[in-house]
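=== RUN LOG ===
request id: a7f3
mode: sequence -> structure
chains: 1
length: 215
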Amino acid sequence: MWTQLRIEVHEQFAAVEAFFKATRGIDKSIEQTAKGLAFVHMYAAYESTVRAIVRTAIAQIEAHGHKLEDLTPSLMALFLDQHLTRLQDSGKKDIWDARIQIFEQLFSGYPAKVSNTVFPNDGNHFRQNQLKTIFRILGLKRMPARRRRHLQKVDEVVHRRNAVAHGEETAGAVGRCYSRTDVLHTIQQIRSVCLLLVSEAEKQCLDKPRHCRRR
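=== RESULT ===
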């Protein structure tokens, strides 16, 4: 499943790059718009990759057949999502029942399972801190990119995409801030981030002992 995900990353970013290159030589104002829209396109490929990594990680960890009680605390936080959400949403009448259910589940001997629709949304909307949260949950202690400037570029792409998608700036206004070379280099950087995320998550999720608490 990780090989297929890696292929999809290459295909998505190849499509982003090919589409952008196809706009070369068109009317100047349209070209500026194309540069701005490239940020929307590459963001879509990036978000799709991050979501797919979490789904694949859940499937891979579940496939190892861990008991919930054996998981590291950070993975427990993921795999107990349904119960923790219930606790968060409980009123005074139900809160103790929700608390008890968490610990009953935790020490039940049940296998670790969670819906693959669960996503650790921490309010950072796919900026670099969200990547750090995902790495922390998986137990990865390294930076989620090869270079710090790549993480800064992630934040920049998210900001530019949001500005266009939410109507704060036109695609043309964003595009005027960049040369074509800048845009192509940004595509390469975000692709690099995505491929590293896949590789690091794959290594972590295939290594069964890394998911378990030390006894």
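=== NOTES ===
Residues 2-66+117-133+141-211 form one domain.
The chain is about 65% helix and 0% strand.
=== END ===
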